[in-house]
Amino acid sequence: MVLVIGAALTPFNRRRDGSGFRDWAAQAFSDALRMAGLEPGDIDALIVSSESDFFTLQLNPASVIAQDIGLCGAETLRVEGGGGSGQYAVHVGVERILSGRAQRVAVLGVDPSASALDGDSIRELYGYSFDFWTDGLSGITATGLYALSWQAFAAEYGAAGTDLDRVATKNRCNACENPGAHLPRIHTAEEFEASPVIASPYKRLHCSPLSDGAAALILSAREAAPALRQTRAPAITGIGAASDLPGLGHRKSLGRFEAKSLAAKRAYEMAGISASAIDLAEVYDAYVGAELQAIAALGLSADPVAALRDGRFDADGACPINLSGGLIGQGAPVGATGVGQAATCALLLEGRYHKGLQPERPLGHALADTHGGVGTSCAVTVLRAGGQA
Amino acid sequence: MKHQVSLDYSLAEGWLAPWIEGLRQGKAIASHCKTCGGAQFPPLRVCPDCRTPSDGWVTLSGRAAIQWRTTGADGDFAVAKFEGAHGATVLRSAHLPPHAAHGRLRACAEGPPILQLEPEPDL
Ligand SMILES: [Zn+2]
């Protein structure tokens, strides 16, 4: 049994205060450690998630972060799986504990995706997230690839352009209640209409921002957790991951995230639940359409388009999706994203999330979903509320 | 603080060399699976259906049918299926008219080997 005894996120935004990624990492770690009621010397291993040395200009970032937060002597390493890096780091942390190699593990995600490089440089680097010799050399951007995949999905599921606006509106409204969110906004229909087309049908307002930030989890074997945390802390009960072919055209389906379905199936099986047990989820909405593609792949709705229109995924709906605002509203410091999603789920399950977003009803299970590429490297985590056998 | 890094890579084409040479000449060179007989374009070292290593190369006609298209500030790209290929591929479609249903592989003798289409010649 792996408990989440500490969880914290720094604000996700564009830093203009002179602070750097090592400052944010130290902040997230110290906040999570305080919630856990532990000292640095209690931590056996540090798993760092950062997508690219090009962002941090630091190979082996785990070494300098460990130095900054007083973890020298602990096992330290970095995990990378593109945009999915953070969730893979969570999985590695869970496995360290399940294998018995560690009792208490810090998982720390961080990236300076907004402030370190100009937007064009970041877009070029993201272009190398796909197969370099095919998609990479063609010059297609992530937005272009997601736009092509979305069109196939929309045709199959009967989605319209207004559904893209609907997801953006939902997530950025949620972000208005999240003081750490990058884009708390209420968009008008006119703003969507006037938003420039980046890669049709995606307009700028349908894309997640580049953000700076960090997130941290303190994971613990139940018996190694402080007594107070043993009863209240939520548990990670399922982890699952799977991969698809990087080239969209090589896949059986251009629009369905089939590796995500496989990852979710593995996570549900490990947790001993089905998708219907999930009360809320933080899913990987790098682009608004990808949220609906994820909901379908995760089995959270057989008809995600109709369910979206019915309000099922709203903050007060039956299965809120991206209460944090998601990548669209909260922001996307890549390496921190997956860790932040798991941290958000843990805080929600424990009733410690931001006041305007914390559901009043009791929660059983939450799901965190992250991927690299366009649904290529998929990692899913299932969490269960504390106080249950 | 400002800090600049300039990187100058030498990239080996490796097993993709025949495919890259095809792009330079405007020839669609696909990998071939001896188990299912399928041709993959772009090539795959291992057939995703049979998991059999590719046993060589076949030359396709170079004609491709457009399935999906995206345009905007980030450029003009499409998903297209080449005649004779098992699956489809993402490629650059900037040289095609907006509603073209087909195109053919465009040679890129100069510059990097880019998968892109040009209009079909008038028959
Ligand atoms: Zn085959």
What does this entry look like structurally?
- Chain A folds into two domains: 2-117 and 210-232, Peroxisomal Thiolase, Chain A, domain 1 (3-Layer(aba) Sandwich); 125-208 and 234-384, Peroxisomal Thiolase, Chain A, domain 1.
- In chain A, helix 4 crosses helix 15.
- In chain A, the strands form two sheets. Chain A has a nine-stranded mixed sheet, with helices on both faces. A two-stranded antiparallel ribbon of chain A has the order 5-6.
- Chain A is 39% helix and 19% strand.
- Chain A has helices spanning 21-36, 53-56, 61-68, 85-98, 119-127, 132-138, 142-157, 161-175, 189-194, 227-232, 258-271, 288-297, 304-309, 326-329, 334-349; strands at 2-9, 45-49, 75-79, 104-112, 197-199, 202-203, 212-221, 235-243, 278-282, 365-372, 377-384.
- With 389 residues, chain A is an alpha/beta fold.
- The model of chain B has no long low-confidence stretch (mean pLDDT 95).
- Chain B has one helix spanning 17-25; strands spanning 28-32, 39-40, 56-60, 63-70, 77-82, 89-92, 102-105, 117-118.
- Chain B has one domain (16-118).
- With 123 residues, chain B is mainly beta.
- Chain B is globular and about 55 Å long.
- The interface between A and B is medium-sized, with 32 and 34 residues.
- The complex binds zinc ion.
Task: Lay out the secondary structure.
The complex is a heterodimer of chains A (389) and B (123).
Chain A: E1 2-9, H1 21-36, E2 45-49, H2 53-56, H3 61-68, E3 75-79, H4 85-98, E4 104-112, H5 119-127, H6 132-138, H7 142-157, H8 161-175, H9 189-194, E5 197-199, E6 202-203, E7 212-221, H10 227-232, E8 235-243, H11 258-271, E9 278-282, H12 288-297, H13 304-309, H14 326-329, H15 334-349, E10 365-372, E11 377-384
Parallel strand pairs in A: 2-3, 2-4, 9-10
Antiparallel strand pairs in A: 1-7, 1-8, 4-7, 5-6, 8-11, 10-11
Chain B: H1 17-25, E1 28-32, E2 39-40, E3 56-60, E4 63-70, E5 77-82, E6 89-92, E7 102-105, E8 117-118
The complex binds zinc ion.
Residues 33, 35-36, 38, 47, 49-50, 52 of chain B line the site of zinc ion (ZN).
